[in-house]
Specification:
Length: 195
């Protein structure tokens, strides 16, 4: 191995990365604590707010990782992946907080515009990804589909026989995002990418 492959980021750059991650975590924690007097938010809003926070923090961590990791490491599809994560987080935040600032029609329209943008970014990400990253994306999707289908069937049967109450589509979206994020971590870890 050459010396350039073994090169690590400088101490200052690593400390800057740690400080940025700490700031992102502190900001997220403060925002969650101050914005969400959780007892005033319905459970489905609280869940989607948590999912949005995880997506935005993941995007911020990815930005830091792009600058902190050694230059010899493959950059992958960093900017597209960050874009997809940020748009997903914002799309989950808009229905919760948007109606306080704009009409429901405007908020919904904004969600649709962001959804189109995120779909385009996802297609571009797939096209730009290498085989390993595509495999992780495919495994994540398959695992999430299987888990959600199984959970939905069990829940639907329990609801039909009167054992549980109905869920809102918004609540189901938060559950879906949580399952998808967990499946993403599992698929990435299986391929050695979650280290």
């Amino acid at each position: 191995m050459s010396a350039s492959l073994d090169q690590k980021p400088s101490l200052a750059l690593r400390l800057l990365g740690i400080a940025a991650l700490a700031a992102a975590g502190g900001t997220t924690g403060y925002a969650m604590a101050s914005v969400t007097a959780l007892e005033t938010l319905p459970w489905d809003d609280s869940l989607n707010l948590l999912m949005a926070a995880l997506l935005v923090v993941s995007a911020l961590a990815s930005v830091v990782a792009m600058f902190v990791r050694p230059s010899s490491m493959p950059k992958g599809c960093g900017v597209l992946q960050i874009t997809v994560l940020l748009l997903a987080g914002v799309m989950l935040l808009l229905p919760i907080f948007g109606p306080a600032y704009a009409s429901p029609d405007v908020v919904f329209g904004a969600v649709i515009v962001l959804l189109i943008g995120q779909s385009i970014a996802n297609l571009m990400l797939w096209k730009a990804a290498d085989e390993l990253f595509r495999r992780v994306m495919a495994e994540t999707s398959a695992l999430a589909f299987w888990a959600v289908q199984l959970a939905l069937f069990v829940y639907a049967a329990a609801e039909r026989v009167g054992l549980v109450q109905s869920l809102s589509a918004w609540g189901m979206m938060g559950i879906l995002m949580g399952i998808y994020l967990a499946c993403s971590v599992i698929a990435s870890a299986r391929r050695g990418l979650a280290a």
